[in-house]
């Protein structure tokens, strides 16, 4: 159940700057309160915390303190550099401060009563120095292994979290996932305003990161598990409806690359910025349709990015020559880029991250994904659908026209394996029909939103002259096929 | 004891490195609290008994000099840092448990008053 507009305005929010996460949190983490981020080793809790600080300092003018119990400043600097952040620059600008707290049990002898006032003083000193608004404690549980007196520790931690709130600081506290309780040392008892749980699961040898909001006091929030990625651009959380349906619908048309199909679409082709699905059984010419579509974009002088999950670029070029298509010249002119990878080469999140990055770097006006079916082999269909939804939303926002091919099995023609047809604006169905001694290829426009289109099944041929539709797709004479 | 803050309580004779080594101790506290007063008193007594005047105690009040807390990695207070002889040792708490303090300072289980023979 996705949380929506019922959010009370009672709780002020501090945006994390991670757009997907802020959507899930309905605006951000609670301002002036503590948020607990729980996860196992390598689940990305430190990175989420660092993003919270770095973006706060950079984008929201809220300086931040990182009290790090595990990593030194140089380590943190190089870690966040890999996400495209320049920690040094923010430190030099006085917007960020890292205080590395080193505690080693072996080097400490405990004798009698003590408190953690030293920690408080360090924190307060740092906060005063840069007028900090945000604090990250990563991972404060290290204290439990460094100091022996758990009673003192618990009392002091309780005091610390209250102290942070009393000072109006928006804090993020990371903690290890526990086996029985949520966290290993039960920190959720003290830090309870907002709890995020990170998960790193391996399914069929492929890993997917997920994030869930376990609790958010006084605020509505998304309750699903949301996949997220960590890549060169930092962390992206993918709430399925993150972008909402707010994109501008365009009325400009783009050619499908096949004259006959354009004719069936009111003689003009698809809408620019729409999503097109081409489904069909094996050997019905899905890739050819995709290539003609790409070809027409390049011929208009637009850029096309072609994601191939089954064939290598040279294989595609060779095959397309056989239907009279010279794609090589577009590649030479830099108008066409074919990105061929095996879907199993990385996890789902890796693919989507890579695709996202390529698209933002190359800025194509047309994208082909051939076929999306193969992504199913690397993830649960729910996850695949979630990712594709996000990808389609993203493409639409960018105004990119996208064509997806999908392999269907005989008999399941009108359902797609991932159930994504509802996300698509146009759906072209290809199939074989046995007629006499030959198999004939037939094309059908199952849907095309917002335009008049032919509802006929039309025979077509693949030859060295390209894709030719019977009667050029025009229903001049009422010929029956099939 | 605030009067003594950041000043040496006792100084060894000049010959710093050459001769019998001095103890260089730092006691970090946060203001005058019962714990810090107790820690200082306990420390002084231990020093007098076991270090034969060859010691120096520097008291650092973190409320006055908060910037000094990260240098010696202070988290808990009171914290006693043995800066010399090496290696650096840390003892936290009000130093009420003399046995533990002695162990922490390497004065035990070695002979009670170790003549400082090492560097």
Description:
The complex is a heterodimer of chains A (482) and B (119). Chain A has 482 residues and is an alpha/beta fold. Chain A is 29% helix and 27% strand. Chain A has helices at 19-24, 45-59, 73-81, 87-92, 117-130, 142-146, 150-166, 259-264, 286-299, 313-321, 328-332, 348-362, 373-376, 381-397; strands at 13-14, 29-30, 34-39, 64-68, 96-100, 108-110, 134-138, 170-176, 194-203, 206-216, 225-231, 234-237, 253-254, 270-271, 275-280, 304-308, 336-340, 366-370, 401-407, 426-435, 438-448, 457-463, 466-469. In chain A, helix 12 runs parallel beside helix 14. Chain A starts with 12 loop residues before the first strand and ends in a 13-residue tail after the last strand. Strand 6 (108-110) of chain A pairs parallel with strand 4 of chain B, so a sheet runs across the interface.
Topology:
The complex is a heterodimer of chains A (482) and B (119).
Chain A: E1 13-14, H1 19-24, E2 29-30, E3 34-39, H2 45-59, E4 64-68, H3 73-81, H4 87-92, E5 96-100, E6 108-110, H5 117-130, E7 134-138, H6 142-146, H7 150-166, E8 170-176, E9 194-203, E10 206-216, E11 225-231, E12 234-237, E13 253-254, H8 259-264, E14 270-271, E15 275-280, H9 286-299, E16 304-308, H10 313-321, H11 328-332, E17 336-340, H12 348-362, E18 366-370, H13 373-376, H14 381-397, E19 401-407, E20 426-435, E21 438-448, E22 457-463, E23 466-469
Chain B: E1 23-29, H1 34-50, E2 55-61, E3 79-84, E4 89-92, H2 98-104
Parallel strand pairs in B: 1-2
Antiparallel strand pairs in B: 1-3, 3-4
